[in-house]
Amino acid sequence: MHLKTLTLRGFKSFASATTLSLEPGITCVVGPNGSGKSNVVDALSWVMGEQGAKSLRGGKMEDVIFAGTAGRPPLGRAEVSLTIDNTDGALPIDYTEVTISRTLFRSGGSEYAINGSSCRLLDIQELLSDSGIGREMHVVVGQGQLDQVLRATPEERRGFIEEAAGVLKHRKRKEKALRKLEAMAGNLARLTDLTTELRRQLGPLGRQAEAARKARTVQSDLRDARARLLADDLAQLGAQLEQERADEAALAERRRAAEDALGVARQRLARLEVAAAASARAASRATDTFHGLGAVRERLRGLASLADERVRLLGTAEPEHRGQDPEELEAQAERARASEAELEREVEIARTALEGAVAARGDTETAAAAAEKELATLLRGAADRREGLARLSGQVAARRSRVEAADAEIERVQAGLAAAERRAEEAAARFAELERDVLGAEAGEEGLDADHERAVAALTEARSAVERLEERVAAAETERATWSARVETLSLSLDRKDGAGALLAADPAGVLGSVASLLGVEAGYEEAVAAALGPLADAVAVESLGAAVDALRLLRDDDAGRAGLVVGGSDGAAPAPPEVPLPDGARRGVDVVTATGPAAAALRHLLAAVVVVEDLAQARALVAAHPTTVAVTRAGDLLAATRASGGSAAAPSVLHLTSALEEARAGLDDAVARGEQGREDLVGARAALEAAQTRHDETLDRLHESDAAMAAVAEQLGTLGSARTGAQAEAERHRTALAEATERRHQDAAALDDLVHRLEVAEAEPTRSEEDIAAATEARDVAQRAAGAARQEETEARLTLRTAEERARAVSGRAQGLARAAERERQAREQAAARARRRAAEADRAAGVRGDVATALEALARSTERAAAERAAAEAEREEQRAEVDAVRADVDRLSGELRDLTDVAHRDEVARAQQVARFEQLRARAVEELGTEPESLVEEFGPHREVPVPRPADAAEDDPDPDPVPYVRAEQEKRLAAAERALKRIGTVNPLALEEFAALEERHRFLTEQLADLKGSREDLLQIVAEIDERVQQVFAEAYQDTAAQFERVFARLFPGGEGRLVLTEPGDLLTTGIEVEARPAGKKVKRLSLLSGGERSLTAVAFLVSIFKARPSPFYVMDEVEAALDDVNLGRLLEIFRELQEDSQLVVITHQKRTMEVADALYGVTMRGDGVTTVISQRLREAAEAG
């Protein structure tokens, strides 16, 4: 068995997946400090189950995850996989290769797996412990582990040996057995107490069970007697009910005949009332027509007067419009345009003259400059001749040298510029190539940004929708609470305690309900209708006069108080209201209410003479004109010819409260509906919010991943951009230097040409006369005077041009203003003519209207006469129908009295029958509740037609025949019931569940007694197991200690030649708890205590102790982290010899800086830290390399 591969992903500095292939033998891991060598040891400890963050050189377990660097983002998890070669079967698992993996997420979650299958940490620890690799990890010797061995207590040193010998798993099993014993002791004590308590309860419960058996026999006899008596009552009462139902059928037949006759009479009355109502409507229409024709006549007379006045006004002529002549204004505009054209021509002439003056001034100034230059040349030539040709020749040579040096500098700068431009082009090409490679990533980045923005917008919208719906639901809930409280308050206000409330609560036959509930009132008219009805607003409506009589009798008999009643009649139309002309804004009382049912006609009759007006002034005028009318204001003030009521506002009427209750209920229903709808919408909105949140998180994760990738690309682009910028800056510096050198070269060349010319002039004309200089001076003066005159002419030309332009601007707007004034004058004259034509047409129309009105008035007079005649005929017909209706109504009243008498008899019989039915139902309910039997089955099985069985005597023998049953006698059964009740009373209180409880308690006592015996047996078994474990631990530890002590003496002698070392037990008589002391005496020293040794000797002693354990109980592999760092060359050589011996039985993984340790290795791993903070590994098999060499 040996370690085969170790794979790290995101573990500490190993950001990328890194795999170390480990071979049998010695594998060394080398590298500079801080490169991540010890992270390999930490990874091995971590994957094998290490749980201490400090043992992994961290503050918390999350520190093992790659934390990121400046150029690389942090990772979200760390994963380490260790593959072990199990060909020899050292691990107790049926695989030749075992891969153990451990994953830790930054959120805190972790996963463990064996060969890809999820498992627990305990499973990994138990798997490794069977091969000598325990939780203490003695096979991994990390940095500082040697010092920990030296500072360990004797008991801790014992733990190293126990782990190597495999004793820890036995101790773990012993601890588990002891924990079970402790739990079992508590359970045993509780079980013993419970068994004792059950034995104490069995005695009293047995006595209760015996009493329950006796009571069961008496209760059976009691139930039989009670059932027979109840069945007899049911049979007798059922027979009485059948007889009364037959009498009810005969009375119902008589009532139907009376109702049919009354129905025929009421139908005739209804037809007559309909006809009377039609006649009343016809008479009302005739009256309305008559009054309407009168009103039309008045309106036509007013229209005629208006037409006369309009003809008079339109016949007067309108004042004539006065203004300037448009033609004259047009002529003035034309003259202004001609002046403007002439001025523009003058401006062009002045501009041409200015251009000529400017050209002349330029020519004269050029000639003056040439003359000045010629004079300067002659003067310098004379001066040069005076200075001497030799000096001038020297200046020419020096300037020519500077020109040649400038040419060389220009060539050098041009070469540097070409090189810099070439480097810039190469960097730009590499930059463009990388940009082309990143184009796809940038396009994806834009798509991710758009997706994330859409997800953010969707999430915001979903949150807003949820908030809006929550506000709607909260508002609806608030409104629901408000309306609910209002409904409850109004309902309590309408809960009446007077006679009307008693009637409504009793709900006798014929009561329709309160007037307020049957009458619908338009909003705003509640006070007016309540005042019009007066006390009847709080009254109760009944369907007929008989129902009213019954209600009054009920109130008197029950002493329930007084109540007002509105007596309903037929469903026909109510009497027509009196014909009264209504003031503005007034309405009839019957028009502001709605009523249906038997009481509708009576309610409309009560309001027939009522008119609702705006105020008391209208009410007084209306009542004064029509004394039969009752006027009511909307504020509740009533005024009639003989009575009046009103004043300040009082308590709300029942009508007002009823209307408010209906409004509150409607509001409550609406609030509940809106709340339910809002909650339904809120469920969908929250689901949409969850989906939007999920989408947002997904897009954000993808965007973060893309940002990390783009950051790496951006770093490369930044490097190339810096290179390109540097090259471009260098090229720009060369261009600047080249421009400066070229400029200096041009200046030097110009100076050289001037010097050469001066030299040539001096050599060619050595004796130039003073006359030539004088002539040149005269020519220069003439040219300067000509230039001054040209400049003066240019100034005068500019002044002339400016004056012409100002005159042209002054004239340019005048022509346009005159043209606009002419157009406005023409439009004003056209409008005046149009107005005159309209006035003439309107005058003609007014005259036509005046004639038509005269004709209409003549026809209207004839129509008014006919309307008056029709109104008189309709009034006569209405009086005849009213007399016939009165006669038929008398017949209806007579038939209604007969029907009431029959109804009273039926009601009395119905009340008596209802009482008998109630008693019968009570008996049926008793049959079900007391006996648990349906009434029909009870009568069938226990009725008076059944014989009563006689119980067997108590002293009768078993073979004696049963007594013969006897006929049913009610008195005997009543005596039997009383005797059973007395016997049951003598028994006293009985626990009906005593029999079942006694049987259950007895069974539980027997079960617990058996369990108690089982627990005692299990306890003895566990104590035997503990004893066997202790014996096994002593045996295994004694053998391991003897082997380790022997190996320590040999290893110590090799590491300390001439020295002496041994291991000593602190308590030799108790091998289960004894510790181990280490005695070390190097050669030439008499000390034995470890604390008195030097640092190197202490480290070497710790190595000797660990190596002794390794040799006594070899492990498949060992990991050592710089254990030889404190040793000199001699001791290092001795330790390496021991490493070679350990190599024969175990695999060694050594972290080292020592060259000699590297030389003995079979494989070498180099660990280095890249510039981005990530560890990189390079491997080499030294044996193969040596053979190849």
UniProtKB/TrEMBL annotation:
Compartments it resides in: Cytoplasm
Functional note: Required for chromosome condensation and partitioning.
UniProt subunit comment: Homodimer.
One Pfam family matching this protein: SMC_hinge
Residues where ATP binds: P32, N33, G34, S35, G36, K37, S38, N39
Residue span of region Disordered: 812-848, 932-964
Domain SMC hinge span(s) in chain numbering: 509-623
Lineage top rank: taxon: Bacteria
Coiled coil stretches, renumbered: 227-275, 326-353, 403-486
Primary location recorded for the protein, binned into one broad class: cytoplasm
Annotated protein name in UniProt: Chromosome partition protein Smc
Domain notes: Contains large globular domains required for ATP hydrolysis at each terminus and a third globular domain forming a flexible hinge near the middle of the molecule. These domains are separated by coiled-coil structures.
Keywords assigned: ATP-binding, Coiled coil, Cytoplasm, DNA-binding, Nucleotide-binding
Family that this chain belongs to: Belongs to the SMC family.
